[in-house]
Specification:
The protein is an alpha+beta fold. Helices cover 34% and strands 28% of the residues. Strand 2 and strand 3 form a beta hairpin. The N and C termini lie close together (5 Å).
Length: 243
């Protein structure tokens, strides 16, 4: 597995409330965590950082060679629940942090398989043979409107309530986590990203930015494209390539 990651404040925001971490696994696999914080300047930064740190440490300590998909899923579930509890605890201890929260999308890739965990509207995409598919399903108000048939996907892209998410870490003691399993063929790519990227970069542009020979440039090219197209939010792109 080869990794590439980059984050940027964007062209409008004064601080970056996105956080991410990536790493290699003992068997040649890889993992990644991406979070998009919310709740004001301090709160968003803290929530996303806490979540990334807790989940990352749990992955590094808990991974075992030849672990089953079920074990991997349970490990991610446990780590995300621990991150949720840590965010709530810090908010309870500090009035300035009350109301903070964060999205999360995490992937554990080993062998020819990947387990993806997801809360919020940060996304995971799977790119294979020049085709792209969105692995995760947004937990957002506009996604619910699309699912119900009230608006189209194109209308969702410019909807005034596009920023309202329906699930996040740090909001409730119990967090509802979605899980996905992805088969990774040779040369396949997983992209984990925040909505600062997907609000400004189309799926066609994602394919274009991840088609070159130098994988280490993929994430910077994606972030640069998002900035060129507006850069109205913090932008984070993480690449795991099965190469």
């Amino acid at each position: 597995m080869k990794l590439s990651a980059f984050t940027d404040t964007g062209r409008v925001r004064s601080s970056n409330q996105d956080s991410y971490a990536i790493g290699e696994l003992p068997d040649g696999g890889a993992w990644a965590v991406v979070c998009d914080g919310m709740g004001g300047h301090a709160g968003g930064n803290v929530a996303s950082s806490v979540a990334v740190n807790v989940i990352s440490e749990d992955i590094k300590e808990g991974f075992r060679n030849n672990m089953s998909l079920g074990f991997a899923r349970n490990m991610l579930m446990s780590s995300i629940n621990a991150a949720n509890a840590a965010i709530i605890r810090q908010a309870d201890e500090n009035d300035e942090l009350r109301g903070m929260g964060t999205t999360v999308v995490a992937a554990l890739c080993y062998g020819e398989k990947a387990v993806v965990a997801h809360v919020g509207d940060s996304r995971c995409y799977h790119i294979s043979d020049g085709e792209i598919s969105q692995v995760t399903h947004d937990h957002s108000l506009v996604q619910e409107l699309v699912d119900a048939g009230y608006i189209t996907k194109d209308q969702a892209n410019s909807h005034p309530n596009k920023n309202i998410i329906t699930r996040a870490l740090g909001v409730n003691e119990n967090v509802d986590i979605d899980f996905y399993e992805v088969r990774l063929e040779d040369n396949d790519i997983l992209l984990l990203c925040t909505d600062g990227l997907t609000n400004h970069v189309t799926e066609e542009e994602i394919i274009e930015c991840t088609s070159g020979e130098n994988i280490s440039n993929y994430s910077t090219e994606l972030v640069s494209r998002a900035n060129d197209n507006g850069g109205t939010d913090n932008i984070t792109a993480v690449i795991i390539a099965n190469r």
